[in-house]
Specification:
By secondary structure, the first copy, chain A, is α/β, with parallel strands linked by helices. Chain A has ten helices and 15 strands.
Chain lengths: 337, 337
Amino acid sequence: MARKRLGYQTVWLETPPVIRASAAVGGAWEGRGPAGKDFDLVYQDLILGQDSFEKAERMMLLDACHLALEKAGVAGPPPKVDYFLAGDLLNQIVTTSFSALSLSIPFLGLYGACATFCEALSVGSTLIDGGFADTVLCGAASHNATAERQYRYPTEYGGQRKPYAQTTVTAAGTIVLQSGGEGPRITHVTTGKVVDLGIKDPYNQGAAMAPAAVDTIAVHLSDTGRSADYYDLILTGDLAAFGREMAIKLALERQIVLGKQYRDCGAMIFSDDQNVGAGGSGAGCVAAMTAGYWLSEMARGKYRRMLVVATGALLSPTTFQQGENIPAVAHAVAIEV
Amino acid sequence: MARKRLGYQTVWLETPPVIRASAAVGGAWEGRGPAGKDFDLVYQDLILGQDSFEKAERMMLLDACHLALEKAGVAGPPPKVDYFLAGDLLNQIVTTSFSALSLSIPFLGLYGACATFCEALSVGSTLIDGGFADTVLCGAASHNATAERQYRYPTEYGGQRKPYAQTTVTAAGTIVLQSGGEGPRITHVTTGKVVDLGIKDPYNQGAAMAPAAVDTIAVHLSDTGRSADYYDLILTGDLAAFGREMAIKLALERQIVLGKQYRDCGAMIFSDDQNVGAGGSGAGCVAAMTAGYWLSEMARGKYRRMLVVATGALLSPTTFQQGENIPAVAHAVAIEV
């Protein structure tokens, strides 16, 4: 087994990379939610003065990138960053690719659906701890109007939503990782395997992703020899109301108690009175919630050991139209003070 | 600067990972080309007995994965592999995600368009050299019928092709990297920045990608202090006939002579008499050509130092329909005996 490996899916970071800075931006609707006060920037509309929603999404990711680079003191130009590691939900991750063009940082494009943010932190941590990078910019974004029309219906169509459907979040989150300095550190990374429990309904992504989340949490705890209460916060990406309940039950079947320390970003990004169905989803959800709200909570001293488990539903409109199941993956990073 | 970094975009591998095994599979048309004799498997049709072209593409990638795993002696089950690193051209890289479900190996999904194969080798090399993995499976795939209908027109439509258009290759290539053992080694990795020289025509991807290829080659040579003739083979992914000419000219402007040692996979995968326009393209092109033909040539003693520069056009149908340019990226890996 490789030197820094613990079990089949987890690695430990010998010199844990530091979260040097983070930034979160979001739409007006997300800004009204409980975490909005910790966003660096809240936009007043969905178009951001651009001529397409796609360009608005890109501007949002770029804003989050520039904010984090400035906070970390590596904005340049050129940015003093070794890699830009990011992804989004649009076909061919064009939000990220076009942002990479503007940033002019060596770029590795990632796709893990809504698990992309933790995938970026995973690759970034190993690049730094492996001696290949000093500073890495990680990010993910999603936009309600671009994702809904690509995966479901254009929002202008006004299609009626199923009560268990989630709302794609308009938000982006970024983190600057560095090899040294002050800040919380990424100590362990657990990379998910793709799992499939037979869900076919693309509106029911929480149910598709819950088994992946629980699988990765169980493997992480087993690989590290930790119990769930080692962490004072276990955070899933965007299972939302129903997926969260399912995760708690599936975890219990594996003798893991997801109790008070367990929270889900999708279930928390909107208030109950915002009428968004089961909650939020989208690659920007866990990104903005972690980079904005949870790291701020950590800085306020409320948490010391956080396991972030971003979950992704690996469908495309083509696969579900062809009647295939929705496989899912979850990647976890342990962030400790 | 990080310990294993040379310049802004290149890293060196302290204990260069070994290419333990590779596999290439391709369609009948690709099998008829000059490299076909080195493919492990040539299919007789495009559908492979499946009920959709998408499932055929997935079967092709899985065949290439299983072949390489068997050759490397790590087939399992379960496969003795720490990571599956791969991508493809379909929306949400579903070919790869569904293959990852079947393989049940910890999975990081990548997207770099036709540069994905070198992106996978890059991430895989750093994971191994960083102490995080012993064995990594890298791959990429593309399928003519799935890609053409997603990006251009369904092949059944019979649309007339522009003479400079490239043909998406039906092929997949995989490489098993290991921390030790016998075989050629990956010694350096150069990660590309996204560049854009203003090309807007989605049929002219060779022209969009040539500047990225030359930029990455120039940076690689500058970062490593090597001249172009250090390598007995410099290989671009799929610039094809016109992009290849453009790359030679752009390189000359930077005082780099791409001479006899310079070859392009897209310009070589089909014979001149196969009437495929400018040549081949697609994420499977450089993957199958490298994993099949070029590594076989290396094993036959014809080459000792090879720089593989996979090139990707980072467009989506949405971006070109919205009138945007086609940015591109190129990632390079140095393979040495």
